[in-house]
Amino acid sequence: xxxxxxxxxxxxxxxxxxxxxxxxxxxxxxxxxxxxxxxxxxxxxxxxxxxxxxxxxxxxxxxxxxxxxxxxxxxxxxxxxxxxxxxxxxxxxxxxxxxxxxxxxxxxxxxxxxxxxxxxxxxxxxxxxxxxxxxxxxxxxxxxxxxxxxxxxxxxxxxxxxxxxxxxxxxxxxxxxxxxxxxxxxxxxxxxxxxxxxxxxxxxxxxxxxxxxxxxxxxxxxxxxxxxxxxxxxxxxxxxxxxxxxxxxxxxxxxxxxxxxxxxxxxxxxxxxxxxxxxxxxxxxxxxxxxxxxxxxxxxxxxxxxxxxxxxxxxxxxxxxxxxxxxxxxxxxxxxxxxxxxxxxxxxxxxxxxxxxxxxxxxxxxxxxxxxxxxxxxxxxxxxxxxxxx
Length: 390
Ligand code: GDP
Ligand code: MN
What we know:
Low-confidence stretches: none
Distance between the termini: 40 Å
Shape: elongated
Bound molecules: guanosine-5'-diphosphate, manganese (II) ion
CATH class of the largest domain: Alpha Beta
Helix content: 25-40%
Structural class: alpha+beta
Radius of gyration: 25 Å
Number of helices: 13
């Protein structure tokens, strides 16, 4: 789960990380009120969307008067901000107004969960501001990587070493070391999967400040962090994915038109490949998991049909723990309860397959059955082609 910049900053401030003073606004009037409340003579108006690259998309504006703040906010509110990371655009309905920071240097700092080493990895660079991909391409030698040993955590020595490699001077190293350790504690305590401060700024006065902040959290650990899960903003999520997640389904929305319901992530990947090989495009990746009851199959049906781009449904079940007869019952129930007006291709194999096939046959429903995965993929692609309006 992702959170907004202002929420990440609020969490990080609790761990002693310096952030600029700011206030949230839900309307342009509130935004200009926030700037008078903050005082000073320069502010940054920042669109709150779950995406980076806001600056170059016009979502971050430095303003010198409350009128400028009002104008900037007027322009941003209600708009879909299209960024390099969010080509579909994300709705702006919260704006964060901050006191402007006097930036002398921009650095980069991130903590990520490195799945290869199964450890937290600190990535840092003396050049901040740009995206890390760009940084790694332009100056790969300037990207610092430092793996944290979980048993000891981020030690002061390691933190100082990173700060030194970032080109900070003696006076800033103690400050940076404290900041990195705070970031590490926040990451660990809150079960984050990503924490990115870009830019981490050295101000004209030589102070370190987190001018931008991005955090993502492990969905599987959210149950033990109510203070984080309440920060969820559905308006920023793929509607198909949040619908499915609410129902306990592992679902990833894709861009094609073949809706998929599969058991097991491995089989789902293989099915995506077979669809592509047959010349089609999957609309989603949905794993109904093991031991799927007819109710669960029905829920999955709803989740897939929820996507209006779906023109064909492909169900591929290789039942081990699952039971084909249960899946078949779920399919029949789906036809009874939902208006299924698109072709459905089903391939069943494994436990209770004979019974499953019998249920489908005797239902008299217009289902295309297939014996193998490749046949199922071909049938689905053929049906999606036939369904394309002339
Ligand atoms: P992003 O584009 O979504 O990553 O948004 P950021 O919060 O990182 O802002 C983009 C850029 O705007 C930063 O890299 C800074 O160069 C600039 N910026 C943001 N806040 C301030 C500020 O307070 N003062 C100044 N001078 N520039 C800022
Ligand atoms: Mn940024």
